[in-house]
Amino acid sequence: MIYINRKAFIRTTSLATAGAIIKPGIFPSSSFEHKIKAIAFDAFPIFDPRPIFKKVNELFPEKGKHIVETWQTKLFSYQWLRAAGNKYKNFWDISRDALDFAFLQASENASNDEKDLIMSGYETINVWPDVIPTLQQLKEQNLKICFLSNMTAKMLRRGIQNASANNHFDVVISTDEKQTYKPSPSAYQMGVDHLGLGKKEILFVPFAGWDMAGAKWFGYPTYWVNRLDAPSEQLDAEPDGTSNSLSSLAGFIHNYNK
Fold first, then answer.
1. What is the separation of C-alpha 142 from the centre of its chain, rounded to a whole number of angstroms?
2. Which residue, of 1, 71, 155, 206, is most buried by count of CB atoms within 10 Å of its CB?
3. Pick the catalytic residue: 42, 176, 211, 240?
4. How many domains are there within the chain?
5. Closest Cα to residue 165, out of 139, 204, 202?
């Protein structure tokens, strides 16, 4: 099932009912002025990070949950702080810095070998179960498919290789190329530049609510894959569609492009 935000609901039905749920196929073809020609994915609607965090819990069962939560928080705050302070480091290096901090905060004396083992999870990362069938459906719609991610290009390509999904991606775009991070507008602009399309022709598919908001601020239509069923960020931005999996994405685009 696809959830359409309130503004889209009012626009397509002229009914002022908030929080409506629209099933695929019932909104008219005139709902949107531009057709989607390409899909730009963040990394984590595609890649499943749970085995990485599971390894932390296996190695440090008493404090693993706390370490993972701190690691995740610092991973993203370090990106934004370094971007704002013009002190760039790439995603891999920041992830290691954030992991170091998480162990310090937990007063857990992890060895370098243990940290290396945890970080190696990025090198073996694979996709969620619904990814390959969805990518095949999108290809059948003749859509360009790319990543637009804060991960390094090397990390993204490794994940694609692990999933044997090389034929499903047309472009790999890493913000590392511009030494910046989403939600900077210059990061989202990379999708426009690489694909040679207008903003409204590129559907951005994020994992996190803040990334959805950043993409909407930039001008992309968005489909939020909210796999963790997280609450909506209060950032004055709503997705054009949302689900907790990729299974409805192809149907959403089909209806969007009618």
1. 21
2. 206
3. 42
4. 2
5. 139
- Domain containing 30 — which CATH number? 3.40.50.1000
- Cβ count near 124 (within 10 Å): 11
Rounded CA-CA distance 33/8 in Å is 12
Q: Count, in order, helices (H) and strands (E) of the chain.
A: 10, 10
- DSSP string for residues in 59-122: H-TTTHHHHHHHHHHHHHHHHHHHHHTT----HHHHHHHHHHHHHHHTT----HHHHHHHHGGG
**pTM, rounded to two decimals:** 0.87
Together in a domain, 156 and 228: yes
Which among 76, 98, 122 is the end of a domain? Answer: 122
Q: In this structure, are 35 and 153 located in the same domain?
A: yes
- Provide the 8-state DSSP code for 26: -
- Residues in the chain with pLDDT < 50? 1-31
The partner residues of 71 in beta bridges, in order of sequence, read none
- Inter-axis angle of helices 91-105 and 153-162, to 10 degrees? 90
pLDDT of residue 18: 30
CA dihedral 193, 194, 198, 202 (to 10 degrees): -140
